[in-house]
Amino acid sequence: MSDRKSQFNQLLETYHPTLREYLQFIPQNSGTLGAGPCKIVMEALGISSQDLMLKLLPFAKLYAKVPISRFPVGAVAKACVSDGCNEFALFLGANIEFTGLALTHTIHAEQAAVMNAWLQGATKIDSVAVSAVPCGHCRQFIFELEGSRTLDVIAQRTNADGFTTTQLPDLLPQAFGPHDLGIKTGLISSAGHLPNLSLKTFSDDPMVLEALAAAERSYAPYTHNLAGCTIQVSDQNFYAGCYVENAAFNPSLSPLHTAIIRLNMDGLAPDDNITRAILVEKPTNISQRGLSELLLGSLAADVRLEYFEVR
Fold first, then answer.
1. Given CB 3.0 to 4.6 Å as the disulfide criterion, which of 74, 90, 93, 179 pairs with 33?
2. Among 175, 166, 144, which Cα is nearest to 251's?
């Protein structure tokens, strides 16, 4: 049993039996507590959605990979999973650092939770809980979300017990966001239609086609650099991620970063080796290729990035 699985099971034993019944399946569900279990647990224990989010934070921290800072952070995003937003699920995320690479490659916990939600079909995020006060980078990242001006941030008090709930604009006054650059909708918006991309070079490889589908889901209103990535690991499972931009540019996430988030949230087993990686993109005045090759080289030096362009 991996160390993370052992920690998960030990933590699980400290919780109410009703919670244990449903929380035990979080690793198999990609770090997610579904809408049905959320409703059942809240009604059975008489707790609010915020209470439940806070109870999940210690589990979210178990997903952290922090070889540089040694400071694990967990986050939980509350997200609608139906068009009418009548149901919500909770999506976990944690910070991920990469040994040997510049700190700018780091994935923050809030980014991981938001991407975990979006890549699993969330239609809106209305609150995010985090085990440490969110840094400015993360405040800027979640300000990109559609509806961010009413989004609640639940954060642990610095050097004190308890948590605070604050609307994001109060944490990021005089914020700069999509609307300042003429973009009318934000990340995770129901507006608009997905583009229909086609490869310049034909392929019926399932991993290539999955990367193509991920590219079509990209959020790239500033450069229109639509890009998707798939990575395969030693057990033959593969994971897709798409490019996500930010109005401040630097908090953007490459498609390989978001694919790594999906891989990291799939169970708590020891790390699987990446055996294959594919990038599909529509290059514009930027490209994801160089960054992806650099990041892949730090994780799997003997794996070549397979590259496909779209029309």
1. 90
2. 144
